[in-house]
Amino acid sequence: MSFLEYKELIEDGDTAIVFLGHDYMFPVTIQHGSQTQTKYGVIRHSTDLIGKPYGSKVTCSKGGWVHILYPTPELWTVNLPHRTQILYSTDISMITMMLELKPGSVVCESGTGSGSLSHAIIRTVAPTGHLYTVEFHQQRAEKAMEEFRQHKVDHLVTVKNQDVCKNGFGVSHIADAVFLDIPSPWEAIGHAKDALKIEGGRICSFSPCIEQVQRTCLALEEHGFTEINTLEILLRIYDVRTVTMQIPDFGKATEDEGSSESGDTAKQIPASQPSSAMFKSGISPKESVGHTGYLTFATKSLF
Ligand SMILES: C[S@@+](CC[C@H](N)C(=O)[O-])C[C@H]1O[C@@H](n2cnc3c(N)ncnc32)[C@H](O)[C@@H]1O
């Protein structure tokens, strides 16, 4: 399998997602003779999975069932083994859009971390673009490369194990975009400028703290970047629910009030009016996912 294209049938060696529910899924490597435990019982890879279509509903040994899904970068983000804090799809989609990434784009990134953003970038720039990703923690760099190979995207990515603040990205004047997710991004702005194409490009830096943002913005300005903007994304998901609304009691109403001197002759509204009504409505959450980080964007322009 490859994260770049879909295929029909589950095969030995694939990475697949075992889906029990929207908030309960995990990745498995499909292997002849292996088995996977779930709360619904065992799944045997040879008999239950290999040769079945992706998306199949598979019955486990205790009678419950799961779905086996083909992995995408979005599913990988919510299932990958965490070696660091990671970026999630809400921030990733804004980064992809604001960096103007597309097939053929050349991108420099640091740090690689757990490879959550890297997978999304690679899928976006395929089949002709390239990602240069720099990670100074040796095991993380090696693990990321191993996953890129397993997911058959390694021809689109170069992993460098070095300090981006000291040694940069190892490439000069070829990038359309640079992304930084490191504790001191201001120390890497000069290297980012060098990695970007002579004619310009876009940069984004992700930082959880506003003090980091301030220092990064100053460094961007010093290096001649323009259009410096910082934003954060707060996701608010609405549920559609059937709600009950109490109808307020305004007392007895009369029709054609004043047509008679005494109220006695006026028609009374029947007392059988319902006291509540049920209808479907969008309900805002009591709690929302809060601050993840600030996204600072800027442009390196030719002029
Ligand atoms: C928060 S993680 C990045 C997560 C990544 N964006 C993802 O979505 O999975 C930050 C990574 O940057 C690496 N890092 C920090 N400073 C660095 C530097 N100066 N050069 C290279 N890598 C660095 C850390 O080792 C860590 O793995």
UniProtKB/TrEMBL annotation:
Localization (cell): Nucleus
Reactions it catalyzes: an adenosine in mRNA + S-adenosyl-L-methionine = an N(1)-methyladenosine in mRNA + S-adenosyl-L-homocysteine + H(+); adenosine(58) in tRNA + S-adenosyl-L-methionine = N(1)-methyladenosine(58) in tRNA + S-adenosyl-L-homocysteine + H(+)
Gene3D superfamilies: 3.10.330.20, Vaccinia Virus protein VP39
Keyword Aminoacyl-tRNA synthetase (UniProt): no
Cellular component GO terms held in the UniProt record: nucleus; tRNA (m1A) methyltransferase complex
Region (Disordered): 251-284
Domain of life: Eukaryota
Chief location category: nucleus
EC category: transferase
Coiled coil: none
EC number(s) reported in the record: 2.1.1.220
Record-annotated tRNA (adenine(58)-N(1))-methyltransferase catalytic subunit TRM61 C-terminal domain positions: 64-300
Swiss-Prot/TrEMBL GO biological process terms: tRNA methylation
Keywords carried by this UniProt record: Acetylation, Methyltransferase, Nucleus, S-adenosyl-L-methionine, Transferase, tRNA processing
Binding site for S-adenosyl-L-methionine: S114, G115, S116, L117, E135, D181
Family statement drawn from the similarity comment of this UniProt entry: Belongs to the class I-like SAM-binding methyltransferase superfamily. TRM61 family.
Function field: Catalytic subunit of tRNA (adenine-N(1)-)-methyltransferase, which catalyzes the formation of N(1)-methyladenine at position 58 (m1A58) in initiator methionyl-tRNA. Catalytic subunit of mRNA N(1)-methyltransferase complex, which mediates methylation of adenosine residues at the N(1) position of a small subset of mRNAs: N(1) methylation takes place in tRNA T-loop-like structures of mRNAs and is only present at low stoichiometries.
Name listed for the protein in its UniProt record: tRNA (adenine(58)-N(1))-methyltransferase catalytic subunit TRMT61A
Organism name: Engystomops pustulosus
